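Pasting as-is:
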Amino acid sequence: MSKNFIDRKYTNILYGIALVLMFSHHFFTFPTWYQEGISYPNLTLFAKYMNAPLSICVPMFCFLSGYFYYFNKEKTYRYAFKKISNIWISYLLCFFLLYIVSIATGSINFSFTNFLLECFLLKNSNMTFCWYVSFYILMMLILPLYSRLSDKSSFLALAAALFFSYMMIVAADRSDTMSNVILKTAYNNLCNLKYFACVAMGYLFAQRELFKELDQYIYIRHSAIRIIVYFLFCLFPFLFRYLTTYLDFIGTPLFLFGLVKLIDMFYRRKLFFPLSEIGKYTLYMWFVHCAFFNVSAKYTQPILYSPKNPILVLIWGLLLCYFPSIIIRKVICLSVDRKNNESI
């Protein structure tokens, strides 16, 4: 089996960086999401030009999912269903908490139908950004078959994944013609498999040790030049997304390669501790920050944007999501451990 190019101590740092990019993306590049009294006119150009680049966090998560999946010894449906149940439990607990907040603030009236629809990812009034859960479920159902195909012919498997992703991109354009909200949500959930190309590329990079080959190919002795080169590896794919996001399956691994090499050059545990720490709670912080943009936004956004300064808002937002996530993770770990013990 191939050797993991990404050191384990760097994994949470990468997740932490992706989370900061995601929060920046949601907090400051969608002016129409601001509630009354909140505005950042000085960030108008930032919102225009950084909207697409900052959303590189999505293909980052997708690529890393495929990359780390390769190193699992068990690539079976038993493992897939275990991972699906774990993320669903996490989703449901966070949804229940946000739903209670929405009821308590009078943002929504209880409806058993809507409650059930959101439990099954067919509505997103509370869990605004949790389309990735449905994507993850579909991804885990595909990966056992994909891994078998890739073991026989990795490049044929990648070609199939690229074609499939392209078809999902084409299909996604037709969702605007659908009037039924539930069917439209289900259809969009399916079309989000357009990101599977990044998952497949991650699997290929792990399988073929392409990071290692790339590292050997661009070996540079002078440290200052290395820093510049690795920075450009990060910068070009990041900014290129302003032009198009269709080449994420190429740009994302280059972006991650530059990040890993820069982290390796400057790594000090205390220096990267904040990113590593929030990286441990990425999933839960992702879920919790939905509260700032869901049906309760009228009440939660004034809390989020109270520091005014964008950098302080970002730090404040991370802290607001970090501390609840610690508690949520402990509760979920207890639930998952109990469930897994009962299944043994």
